[in-house]
## 1
Amino acid sequence: MSTIRVLVGTKKGAFILTSDGKRTQWAVNGPHFGGWELYHLKGSPADPDRLYASQTSSWFGQVIQRSDDGGKTWNPPGTKPEDLMGPDGMPKGESNMFLYDASAETGQPLTTHQHYDGTQRPWELKRVWHLEPSLTDPDTVYAGVEDAAIFKSVDGGTTWQELAGLRSAKGHLWQPGAGGMCLHTILLDPGHPDRIFVAISAAGSFRSDDGGKTWHPITRGLKSQYELPDPDAEVGHCVHRIAMHPSRPHVLFMQKHWDVLRSDDTGESWQEISGNLPSDFGFPIAVHAHEPNTVYVVPIKSDSEHYPPDGKLRVYRSRTGGNEWEALTKGLPQQNCYVNILRDAMAVDQLDPCGIYFGTTGGQVYGSADAGDSWTAIVRDLPPVLSVEVQTLP
Amino acid sequence: MIRIVLPAHLRTLARVDGEVKLDVESPVTQRSVLDALEARYPMLRGTIRDHVTLTRRPFVRFFACEQDLSHESPDTPLPDAVAMGTEPLLIVGAMAGG
């Protein structure tokens, strides 16, 4: 029987939840890296025991951790356990640097971006928001960072090189939103190995068709009437999350600051599909593992009221690719619930029926083993959940 | 022999218990001590001071001999008691809630 492994990043450490394919009994393992913010953990599709984690702290900065045994042990990449734990007590590990490309060939003149006060500020690394392992190579992994940029490692996270062409996509006009200028979404196209989609808060969504060398905004059809002076601007839209189904990578679904949207042409144009949602504000969006037209969102009341409308935690599912949404409430609190679900905190497994999972800022991780029809709390009292990823193991 | 006390999270990251002891050639300064510390524990690079600029991270403090040395120049000699190893250099995470 399959095993499900849920990787949970929280504000005070990481937790690993495991169950068999029935998804009724769960073991909770953690905290790993207790006291640190674990913005994101994700496993390699090519080697499920290879996990990457973003460990970050306002005090001590950014550390990348890697596990080669499914989360039992962790090391900063570039180290081996015998190096770190040698008899002479002389660790040889290397931490990992994310240096923005300032080279004349690829990094110039993108040395600054717009700041809150209208001045130009240099790009400075705050943290890694998202790690996206390659679909085919366990040693290749992408990192989305704040201040917004994408980095790539081809040596298992030991060294990182910026794909600086992204900042050529009008990077001088990007400016941080309230949550920081973060690159939080990276989607790899399984049908086109050189195609990468990214999304950046308060900057927009972007696509590369050449492995990350060059990029262009994919924002036509996005409207930000109350957030931007030009509602149809090419950059500046606050994209919260993009999702795709691997069988249909030209179709993208987006949860924007306000509005849920869909593109049928690899992001070249977008149409709103908010339909009958009680609010079209929200953060995560996910696609069913086996039904490319079944989409999930969690409506949040507003941009300043980051909790579910009416105190009712409701996942909304569309089986029609948008516009027609049904509330999924069985097992979820339907009164006095004022948590948020962050952009990286919802994911699906690959079993049939499809399992779907999400974590809340209240520390609950909810799971559904029936595509959202009913839910149970796998764990209730974790620190605020920042991210949820799922691995389906044979 | 210079004695260094790391905050708990960095002891975990470096996989050390208790004080760290390092040989540092004179003059003993914040910079020379941190250079030696990072050479021996490379996973600490970037956690105490910036990778590139080598400036102290904002929420890290340096204490010794009941003094806050955080705002001293990195090249100012540390107190003799630190240089002689009778007192440790304390690397501290600044106070904060949460």
## 2
Amino acid sequence: MSNQSNEYWSEDEREAMKKLYGEQTPPPELESRTLTALGRRGMFGIPVTNRWPRRVAYVLGAAAIYVLGFFSPSVVGLLEQARPVSGEYLLLLHETPESMAASEADQVREYSRWARQLAAAGTLKSGEKLGETVSSLTGEGHSVTVSAGVGDVSGFFLLYAPTYEEAMAIARSCPHLRYGGTIELRRIDHGEG
Amino acid sequence: MNPTAQSDRELVDAFLQHRDEETFLVLYRRHAPALFGLIRRELGGDSGRADDVFQEAWVRAVRLLPDFRWESQFRTWLLGIAFNCCSEARRGDRRTDPMEEHHEPAGFSDPGKRMDMEKALAALAPGYRSIVIMHDVYGFTHGEIGNALGINEGTSRSQLSRGRDILRKWIGERT
């Protein structure tokens, strides 16, 4: 405190003020959230993976790349080199009148938190919110017609999971269900059969 | 050298050179409790909003870091950013002059009654409170207050004086 404040406030008063504005340790999730926010804005350089364990580098890279949960441009391919091709599953999020009526801010917050947990576990490969414009194409060649389509898919998550059952367990935990939406779970077929 | 033993300036220089998360985390963990305590107190019980403002303060600090001239201590500079972020967060809620929003509880115009410091600070208009706290708790100079809040030193001095007078009226004479 400045000398001038020493003159104005008594020692007890100064101590009371200092105590009110004392340090508080932020929760650990706020640290990861801050790192993610900074990474999303490109404020970090390329992680130095040769200093860190590969998995930790992967997790931090996934967390930094996943842009505030749901509203980010795709960065598919950046993480592919770190994980095997098989065991990928797509969650397609379908909207219902109930899920569309829910608070978007609440949804973003919850979906982001869920996605960060998956990213920290090395499970999340990608995720995006889809725009509202739907174009429907039919025909071929010069006969392709385009019309306004009707779609209820609002977004997707692309995950890694060793088995279909584990992918199902992850899908069950997705907050989209709690908001009344439905989820379509599909395994990515890489031609293994 | 162990990063945790490095000075703020050494860490900042290293971070600006390499932009690595490891160095940032040393700075973050060193100063986060001070920022978090301040923001939580300034924004009252709204922990969700406090978390958002805390994150925004760090984002802003990293963005402004290349322009930091070391004319104050690093923590002072960070706290100034945090105060500014809190002020902006409150501005979104406000419809009146931040210097006029006292919520003097009934009965405390009575000179015989005293309010405790916590209640008095909570009741004080945010604009005055920030300056009192910046100066009298964190030791900001009026120049640093001016830089952080975008006001001139004279305004900082007059608002500090006014804020102190109001608090003194509520908490009673110095004992």
